[in-house]
Amino acid sequence: MSPTSATLTPSSRPRPRPRTATRSSSPRRSRDLWLGVLGVLIVLAGAELLSRTGIVNPDFLPPVTEMYAALFAMLGEGWFWEALWLTVRGWAVGLAAAMALGVVVGYIIGSSTFLRRFTSSTVEFLRPIPSVALIPLVILIFGTQPQSAFVLVVYAAFWQVLVQVLYGVADVDPVARDTARSYRFGPIRIARSVVYPTALPYIMTAFRLGAAVALILEITAELVIGVDGLGRELGIAQSSGAVPETYALVIVIGFIGVAVNLLVRLLERKALWWHPSVRSEQS
Amino acid sequence: MTRYLKSAGYTLGLPVILLTGWWFASAGSTNPFWPPLSTILEAFPTTWTMDRIVGDILPSLARLGIGFGIAVVLGLVLGTAIGLSPSLRALSEPVLEFFRAVPPPVLVPIIALFAGYTGWLGKIVTIALGCLWPILLNTVEGVRGLEPTLTDTAKSYRLSPWRRLVFVILPGASPRIFTGARQSLSIGVILMVISELFGANRGLGAAIVQFQRSFAIPQMWTGVIVLGLIGVLLATLFKLVENRMLAWYVGQRQIERGA
Question: Can you say where in the cell this protein is located (chain B) (predicted)?
Answer without folding.
Answer: Cell membrane
